[in-house]
Amino acid sequence: MQRALLSVSDKTGIVEFATELVALDFELVSTGGTLKVLAQAGLPVVAIDDVTGFPEMLDGRVKTLHPRVHAGLLARRDLPAHMQTLAEHQITPIDLVVVNLYPFKETIKQPDIKLAQAIEQIDIGGPSMLRSAAKNYVSVLPVIDPTDYEKVLELLHTDGLTNPIRKAFAAKVFAHTAAYDSLIATYLAETEFPEKLTLSYEKFANLRYGENSHQQATAYRSAMPEAYSILSADIMHGKQLSYNNLRDADTALRIIADFTDQPTVVTLKHMNPAGIGQADTIYDAWDKAFKADDISIFGGIVVLNREVDLKTAQAMHQIFLEIIIAPSYTPEAYAELAKKKNLRLLKLPFAQPIAPMKDVVSVLGGVLVQDRDLETERASDFTVVSEKQPTADQLASLVFAQKAVKHVKSNAIMVAVAGQTLGMGAGQPNRIDSVKMAIQKAQTKVAFKEAVLASDAFFPMADSVAYAAAHGIQAIVEPGGSIKDQASIDKANELGIVLVFSKTRHFKH
Ligand SMILES: NC(=O)c1ncn([C@@H]2O[C@H](COP(=O)(O)O)[C@@H](O)[C@H]2O)c1NC=O
Fold it and tell me: Where do the MGS-like domain residues begin and end (predicted)?
């Protein structure tokens, strides 16, 4: 007769599983709550106290932590000395361990949970048994997941528990206990940048491929998911998002989060905003965003921060788009947009701000961890450094341009008027080229005569100010901080334009 030890917090399917184990001639051993459920179902079960010779004690902190349990799990069946030791101490080997852990994650997700309550949900005995069983997987099968019960029964019935299959169960245990401990470590940590970085993510979806079709990829979601995340969005229509879609959509969500005060639309391609429009209605905001760059939007992503109405849907329907993300759609708008089979319609509430978590990027051989850039500047953060003062309209345009340029890949330049981007220079290795690109694009727009220019970082020399002024820009905002700031200020004064320092740099690499 083989022995199975069952000790589970999540009792889903345990009675059915245990019934089959009894039919397979297993002797069941169990801890308090699990024993009660099994006994109530009429199953023969030995109490853990009768195995250890000790009562479960200290409010359940010690139940299975005993040599009679762990020697029974860890003894090597192929070593006569080990089996002799078990016999000397009258310890019965354990062949199957069915354990799932105290729900620590679910506990800390609850609002207002106290540290003492969380600590009581740190499982000690369960992971210990699982680890012992997993180390000795050749002889002991650890089962951690109720969705595996059926598979385990089939393997037991068919004598299919080969060593590679047992090893896979062991690996699942160590991944699970590592993830469990990682959450505990993060929860208890007193520092944001610990000596050992342990991150806990769970498989979200296998992706068709990565950035390119020869790269495989999978999306993982944080074990503590954020509400405001592309991975939390409801895909109402269309197929699964690709790797590039997810990155682009994530960028779009980060951008629109900085524009909550008015109906706003962001169009996006290749991680850069193609256009940003703000207006009193969502249709007008769409119209401005679309007209900001009606070429780049082709095949792009649109994110809106208000309900999509029919008029806006009809306008968007004219264009080939990959994804639309909005907090809601009127039924008519949804019906209009859903006519396109391949267009993805996503729903995500925009009430929550971006969580002040860390962003992680990989480099060869490591990762870099930093705070998210959640700074946005208001007019009151600006210092006018030119002799010429901005008008109220220019100030509003400078604030809008500054918010927009933060989301453009460096070296970033944005030419805009309040409520509409007009031209962008993105990702050029020198700033003056970005200035030229942004102005060239913006010049084709009617609103250009009112346009201002924003730069994500300081101008290293006065050439950008000179070029902008020569091409009709009347006001510029940049963080300042260059040793040559004075040259830019002098140039602005010489050419009679406004120069404002925002103080905060917004590199985005
Ligand atoms: N303290 C121990 O020795 C111990 N042994 C097993 N457990 C856990 O107790 C739970 C099951 O308890 P019960 O059968 O009483 O409902 C399982 O989640 C199991 O992982 C323990 N609890 C916490 O560490």
Answer: 1-144
Phi first, then psi: give them for residue 2, nearest 5 degrees: -95, 160
pLDDT level of residue 255 (50, 70, 90 thresholds): very high
pTM of the model: 0.90
Catalytic (active site) residue 407: no
Write out the two tokens for 105: 């994650």
Torsion angle, CA of 186/192/194/199, rounded to 10 degrees?
A: 50
DSSP bridge pairs for 234:
347
Average pLDDT for 392-397 = 97
Q: Which of 82, 135, 340, 347 is catalytic?
A: 135
- Closest ligand 1 atom, CA of 32? 15
Question: For residue 506, how far is the Cα from the chain centroid?
Answer: 22
Establish whether 135 is a catalytic residue: yes
Side chain identity, residue 293: D
Q: Which residue has the tokens 């341009």?
A: 401
**Is 100 in contact with 8 (CB distance < 8 Å)?**
yes
Could you tell which of 66, 102, 121, 130 is best to mutate to test the pocket of ligand 1, judged by most ligand atoms within 8 Å of the CB?
A: 102
Q: How far apart are CA 450 and CA 422, in angstroms?
A: 11
Query: CB of 32 closer than 6 A to ligand 1?
Result: yes
pLDDT level of residue 352 (50, 70, 90 thresholds): confident
- Burial annotation 139-148 (CB, 10 A radius, 16+ → b, else e): bbbbbbebeb
Dihedral over Cα of 148, 220, 371, 382: its sign:
negative
Alpha carbon distance 378, 23 (integer Å): 71
Centroid of ligand 1 to alpha carbon of 73 (angstroms): 16
pLDDT of residue 350: 85
Is any atom of ligand 1 closer than 6 Å to the C-beta of 19? no
Both tokens of 269, joined, read 């391609």
Q: What percent of the chain is modeled with pLDDT above 90?
A: 97
